Amino acid sequence: MLSQSTFYEASGDREALDKAYELYDIIETKMRDELGYKEAFDEEFHEIDNEKLSENGVIAQKTMNTLLHVFEAYTELYRVDHNEKVADKIKWMMDILAEKVYNPKLHRQEVFFDDKWNSIIDLHSYGHDIETAWLVDRSVDILGDADYEKKMTPITKDLTDRIYRVAFNGSSLANECEKGVVNDWRIWWVQAETVVGFINGYEKTGKEEYLGAAENVWHFIKEHLIDTRDGYANGREWYWRVKPAGTPDDTQPIVEPWKCPYHNGRMCFEVIRRIR
Question: What global pTM score does this model have?
Answer without folding.
Answer: 0.95
